[in-house]
Every structure is written in C-alpha cells, then in structure tokens.
Specification:
This protein is mainly beta. It is 0% helix and 54% strand. It contains no helices and eleven strands. Strands 2, 4, 5, 6, 9, 10 and 11 form a seven-stranded mixed β-sheet that branches. It has a four-stranded antiparallel β-sheet with strand order 1-3-8-7, with no helix packed on it.
C-alpha cells in the first residue's frame, strides 16, 4: 500500500522560508517521479513542482527561482524548499505520485502572512 506523509508546514511571514518533506512507503521510490501540488481555499489543486528519478526538475512559473524540489532516495523522501514566500503561496501542499493510480498525501498547511 502506497503511503505519502507530508510534514513541515506552518505559519510564516512574507519573505520567510519553509521546507516541506514527504516520506513515501510501499513503492519503488528511486524509480518514481514525485510531485508537489497545492490547493488554496476555494481553488483548484494546482501542480507546483516535479522531480523525476535521476533528479530532473520542473516548476510552475509562479514559484520558479523561489522553490526547490529535491529528493533523498536513501530516505524515500522528497522535499520542497520554499524561499521568499508570498501570501499567495498560502495553501495546503500535497505530495503525489503515480503507480497504478495517482496517490496523494494528507497535505500540510502553509500560511504566509503579509
């Protein structure tokens, strides 16, 4: 059974930083492409960043230059380092991957005050 568990969310002032973690189990992590999504209140869930096996990354334009996705295959963990946070980054952040279907973590709340 695939399980994704996010942590690291919190409350931060604009300009601050947070690092989210997603611990994965029940899958061949080293072979998996891992993604981060976010969902603001009353908004659709949006893709934020992706990291493929081997480390190739991509980001939505709104976070390029501020967010960094990385992975530690020895720890089955993917990270999202978020710098220069803005109030519009406020959302629940989800870790996700696809095996036979798409799996989601439970999410972690990030709140950025102005």
């Amino acid at each position: 059974q695939v399980q994704l568990v996010e942590s690291g969310g919190g409350f931060v002032q604009a300009g601050g930083s947070l690092t989210l973690s997603c611990s994965a189990s029940g899958l061949d992590f080293i072979s998996q492409t891992m993604s981060w999504y976010r969902q603001a209140p009353e908004m659709m869930r949006d893709w934020v960043a992706v990291i493929a096996s081997g480390g190739v990354t991509n980001y939505r334009n709104a976070v390029k230059g501020r967010f960094t996705i990385s992975r530690d295959d020895a720890k089955n963990t993917v990270y999202l380092r978020m710098d220069n946070l803005k109030p519009e980054d406020t959302a629940v952040y989800y870790c996700s991957t696809i095996t036979t279907t798409r799996f989601w973590g439970q999410g972690t709340q990030v709140t950025v005050s102005s």
